[in-house]
Design a protein that fits this description.
The complex is a heterotrimer.
Chain A (H helix, E strand, L loop, with lengths): L3 H37 L5 H16 L2 H19 L7 H26 L3 H9 L4 H31 L11 H12 L2 H30 L8
Chain B lengths: L11 H41 L4 H15 L3 H11 L9 H27 L2 H9 L4 H31 L11 H12 L3 H28 L9
Chain C lengths: L3 E12 L2 E12 L3 E5 L6 H8 L7 E6 L2 E2 L2 E3 L4 E3 L2 H8 L2 E4 L11 H11 L5 H14 L15 H13 L5 E5 L7 H14 L6 E5 L3 H7 L2 E6 L2 E6 L1 H6 L4 H16 L1
Parallel strand pairs in C: 3-10, 3-11, 8-9, 9-10
Antiparallel strand pairs in C: 1-2, 1-4, 4-5, 6-7, 11-12
The chains are: A mainly alpha, B mainly alpha, C alpha/beta.
């Protein structure tokens, strides 16, 4: 007779695939948000700056689960009130909540890294007559990215862990599958031990990938080339 | 009706006003869970930090592995694990205590790093100076290193206190009636999620903004030269 | 040699309450090589930074190539310059920085080609050919594919010079180009600057503490103190028979400094 844990594997792996997709999509959205609003917070335009600060404070200042429930339960009602269908499929609500949340934390990382670029670099860029946009894209951000990588690595792992919360809006991720199996078999110890180790394994792989990426973007740095 | 308070669904404003006391009951639970979870995190983090600093690798290595494992797995799954697995071994805790314990365990991985970083930030020269003065190792630790580490540790811990507060809503999955859970119940019964969930968001925003400025104030105003233990 | 290529007309620069440049006036003619000397904090670097548009001014008018730099001609008199005007004016100037300020994430070659391609719209191949010529000029042909951190300070500064020249400026500003270098590396950078000074079209404005070098290459020396020009003249005049007490004092202290090293 095969041990039970082997029977649990296929549904858990199916869930792991969903977890992986959620992590990738929401991290991608998070990175986009982080750059948009991290740069926005340093803008000379007061409206862009205020909007960026508001985004960062709201999504860092409220709980991720509150944001997820708001998008999933409250947003459709707002839509109803103004006559637009804002009902989101769970996967969209999940990716949005995760991405917007992690993006707010990432925005502070991006801002900090951009500010850490030496002012002499901006002066050199100005002396060579780069436009502010060319300076930002060609000089500042390429130098700031390696600075951001360790923090982004932590955020990516944080994001992987946070994907577990989407099981609460019945999205079939790894945690959701584990819950289903537990309801069915009551074999809690085995299932949750497996689940913990699967998250751990995914986190280790993710960390390794982020380290590789970190080395890749920082090739030009002293002692890294 | 919930906790003895009626709601008034005439319009959004009356609903908001009438459910505010209900949400406050939930908030009280949230704050209790935060404080208890934080306390567990402080104690357990200290234990992990000491173990990681042990001279024997047989002690320090497992402590590192455990920290990494806790840090890399979701709070929700750890909570499920405690909630469903502990009773199988005869340990039956109220959901609230299980939740606070899960929060404490998750954050002990982070607080243990805060202790270590705080202690390591006290420079080598301070240790050498203490040795030159012929202070014992224990006395050096309690009278030289710890007082200087505290001002670095406190603000970092404050940030984790705020993070724990934001993670309390996860406890709703094991029936803890914290603020978000209360808001959902109100939503289920009034068919209006928008008002209660937005209010929870607003209350969280106020709390974290106040708490974060408190942490910043501490960061600025703690004496840099250290805080004596006496 | 008629109209000045650079003219400072009663220029005032303040940092808070501190007046760095106090109604400063001077002219520089096309092709002239001028060195500004003076104690630190005398405002000499500020002059270069104003010309490079890294610092604004609080009063007066700066002219470059006959046009106001920080102003534009409005319907009635001068108005503060727009970004477009500053962008156009900057094309005439190049700057070599004390800390080199090379782009650390680009190879030497790309440091030199990036601006010509992006700003001047040069073709990649053309920019590359030009960069290779310039690298030969500064004696670094073998280092094109290296990153700045793989070079010595003196080599980095020579790349800095090549990078500035790649934009074909009429005026080249040197802000203490050898101050951040180890003494044994100063010579190679001065050699390159000296070589450039023989090019008659290029106007050079140099801030340095290398008195002997200043004397060799300069047409004229300006001695700055407390935001004003205390004395100016040919190198021979100023170094051998300074008229002002303050100048003598400064040159004496510089001599002590050099001898002390």
């Amino acid at each position: 007779m095969t041990p039970h844990w082997i029977e649990y594997l296929p549904p858990l792996i199916e869930g792991a695939w969903v977890t992986l997709q959620l992590t990738v999509f929401s991290t991608f959205l998070g990175v986009v948000m982080a750059f948009l609003f991290g740069v926005g917070k340093l803008s000379h335009n007061p409206f862009i700056r205020a909007f960026s600060v508001a985004y960062i404070e709201v999504f860092r200042g409220t709980s991720l689960l509150v944001q997820l429930f708001w998008l999933y339960f409250a947003l459709p009602l707002t839509g109803q009130a103004i006559g637009i269908d804002l009902r989101l499929p769970p996967v969209v609500a999940g990716v949005l909540a995760l991405g917007l949340n992690i993006g707010a934390y990432g925005a502070e990382v991006v801002r900090g890294a951009i500010q850490s670029v030496h002012p002499g670099q901006h002066e050199a860029a100005l002396a060579l007559n780069f436009t502010p946009r060319q300076t930002m894209l060609g000089v500042t951000i390429p130098q700031a990215v390696p600075e951001m990588m360790p923090a982004f690595g932590n955020l990516a792992v944080q994001n992987l862990k946070d994907t577990a919360l989407v099981s609460l809006i019945s999205l079939g991720d790894m945690t959701f599958r584990a819950e289903q199996i537990r309801n069915f078999t009551q074999d809690s110890t085995v299932i949750y031990t497996m689940l913990l180790f699967m998250y751990f394994g995914m986190a280790l792989v993710l960390t390794a990938i982020m380290r590789l990426l970190e080395r890749r973007v920082g090739q030009w740095r002293p002692g890294k080339g | 009706m919930l906790f003895g308070f009626e709601w008034d669904t005439t319009n959004a404003l009356t609903l908001a006003l009438s459910i505010l006391p209900i949400l406050m009951v939930g908030l009280w639970v949230t704050l209790q869970a935060t404080v208890l979870g934080f306390f567990v995190a402080l104690v357990m983090g200290m234990v992990l930090a000491v173990l990681k600093g042990a001279r024997s690798r047989l002690v320090s290595w497992p402590a590192y592995a455990v920290t990494e494992f806790i840090r890399d797995t979701p709070l929700l799954v750890q909570l499920f694990f405690l909630y469903y697995v502990l009773p199988e071994y005869g340990i039956v805790l109220p959901a609230f205590l299980t939740g606070a314990l899960a929060l404490g365990i998750q954050y002990s991985a982070y607080t243990s790093e805060v202790y270590r970083a705080g202690l390591e930030a006290v420079g080598h020269d301070q240790r050498e100076a203490a040795r030159a003065l012929n202070l014992s190792r224990a006395r050096t630790f309690t009278h030289v290193i710890v007082p200087q580490a505290i001002p670095r540790i406190i603000p970092a811990m404050g940030n984790y206190l705020v993070s724990i507060m934001k993670d309390v809503p996860v406890l709703s999955v094991v029936t803890v009636l914290e603020m978000l859970n209360v808001a959902r119940i109100v939503g289920d019964r009034t068919f209006d999620y928008l008002v209660p969930l937005s209010m929870v968001g607003g209350i969280y925003l106020i709390l974290t903004l106040v708490a974060s400025s408190g942490v910043r104030w501490l960061d600025r105003n703690l004496p840099n030269q250290g805080i004596p233990l006496k | 040699m008629n109209d000045p290529i650079i003219r400072f007309d009663n220029v005032v620069k303040r940092f808070g309450d501190h007046t760095v440049l106090d109604e400063l006036n001077f002219d520089i003619r096309k092709g002239e090589k001028v060195t500004i000397i003076g104690p630190s904090g005398s405002g000499k670097s500020t002059v270069l930074r104003i010309l490079m548009t890294l610092e604004g001014i609080e009063g007066g008018v700066v002219h470059v190539g006959g046009e106001p730099l920080w102003h534009e001609h409005g319907p009635v008199g001068l108005v503060p310059a727009s970004q477009a005007h500053l962008h156009r004016m900057r094309g005439q100037l190049g700057m070599v920085f004390q800390q080199f300020n090379l782009f650390p994430h680009m190879t030497v070659l790309r440091n030199i080609t990036e601006a010509p391609v992006k700003v001047l719209g040069l073709g990649k191949a053309e920019a590359r050919d030009r960069a290779e010529e310039l690298l030969e000029l500064v004696g670094l042909s073998d280092h094109a594919q290296k990153y700045p951190h793989q070079l010595s300070g003196g080599q980095q500064q020579r790349v800095g010079i090549a990078r500035a020249l790649a934009m074909r400026p009429n005026i080249l500003l040197f802000d203490e180009p050898t101050s951040a270098l180890d003494p044994e590396l100063v010579g190679e950078v001065l050699n390159v600057i000296g070589q450039l000074s023989e090019e008659h079209d290029l106007t050079m404005l140099l801030v340095t503490h290398e008195m002997r070098f200043a004397r060799e290459i300069s047409d004229r020396i300006l001695f700055f103190d407390q935001g004003r020009i205390v004395e100016e003249g040919s190198p021979a005049q100023l170094f051998t028979s300074p008229q002002r007490e303050r100048t003598r004092e400064f040159l004496g202290s510089e001599l002590d400094r050099v001898l002390a090293v």
